[in-house]
Amino acid sequence: MKQLTTLILIALLLAGCGRFGNKNNKGGKVRLVSVSKQMTEFLFALNQGNKIVGIDLTSTYPPETKNITTVGYHRHLSAEGIISLDPTLVIHQGDVAPANVMPQLVAVGIPVKQYPAGNTFDSAKMVLKMVAHDYGVDSIADRLTKKMDDDLAKADAIVKQYPARPRVLIIHFGQQRNQYFVMGTRGTANTMLQLAGGINAADTSSFRDLSAEVIMREQPDVILATDFGFDRLGGSVEKFMQLPGIGLTPAAKNGKIFRIEEHDLVYFGPRSGENIIKIAELIHQ
Hints:
The chain has twelve helices and eleven strands. It is of the alpha/beta class. Strands 6, 7, 8, 9, 10 and 11 form a six-stranded mixed β-sheet that branches. The chain has a five-stranded parallel β-sheet with strand order 3-2-1-4-5, sandwiched between helices. Helix 5 (121-134) packs antiparallel against helix 6 and helix 6 (138-159) packs parallel to helix 12. It is globular.
């Protein structure tokens, strides 16, 4: 209660100095804070990116996001940081924390809108259309969703050329305490991998740390290393292969270790069809 009272006082003070509310909202300009990586990409794809004044740390696509103020990790937000950006609307998809942040924003007069989580290819298209309708750009969403379908059909055509289904390990980063953080057999990355004609070699259903011994035992045909871990390790396949367990896999022996952007794997969006094609071309080459 004391914290909420403090936040209300902060908001009132900001309003009094012309830094909060309509006094700073010149000409009724829309100022969005998006604390969802999927929503951020949707807004940019719908030509609404110029309205975004704040994003969470996981919103890393498109490249223009590098020039936008971050308000922290979406599971560890600060109401004060969001208030300081004077938003006219805060957008999220329910996976935010701590739980009291959104109510605090509403209490000081900042509107908050929650969209459904687009966790599948089809539901992502539905959410994209919802956002487009809210901003009066339905035709853009129609064009984007058609492209998503067309790209997925192209990916399917590529996969049908290759009857073999390679075992693929997706490593987010390695090596920390002799463990490798991998993407398991549940979630968006796994679905994309399946649509690209691959089999997830991870010995886990969720994101999890696996030992070098487990990595070696699973014998993946292909390793996809996300930019986060790959770049931390020097940004070269040679250095990645020197990690314990990696060099003894078929992926290393056959030169099938590839860098991939994390934001291409962790949610469905306008580029998902393209990204599935990219994965298919990597794992089947």
